[in-house]
Sequence to fold (145 residues):
Amino acid sequence: MTDPTVSDLLCFDLYSTSRQMTAAYRPILDEHHLTYPQYLVLLALWERDGQSVKDLAARLHLDYGTLSPLVKRLEAHGRVVRARNPADERSTLVTLTEEGAALRPLAARIYAHGAEILDMSEADLVTLRRLVGTVRERLSAAAGA
Fold:
C-alpha cells in the first residue's frame, strides 16, 4: 500500500468541513458577539434549560476545561447564569437569562442558512448526520470514552 495523501484522509475531510461550516455561520454569530462553541452551549440550553455543567459537557462532547470558559464568557455577557444546584451542592447549574433565551430564533436562522448553503435534500442530511454520528461513536468507543 502506498502512503496516504491528504485527500485520502477522512479525518482531513471532517476537519476541513467543520472549519468551513463554522466559517459559514460566523457572520451571523458575529452579529450577536457569539463564537460557534458558545452558540452550541446556548443551543443545548434552548433544548433543556437549567442543565448541570456535567450534563452540558456530555451533551456537547466537551471536557470541563473546554466548557467552563465558554460558560463563564456567556455569563459575563449576560446570556446565562451559573448557580449551585440546590439538590447537589457539588453541581453547578447553567440557566438562560432573558437575553440568552431571546436569542433562540438564532437557531432556526443558522439551521436555514446551513441548509441553503449545502443545498442537500433532508434525506441526505439525515443520512450524513447518521454516518458522522456513527464515526463519532466508534471513535469514542475506541478511545474508551
Observations:
- The beta strands are 51-52, 80-85, 88-96.
- The first helix runs from residue 10 to 31.
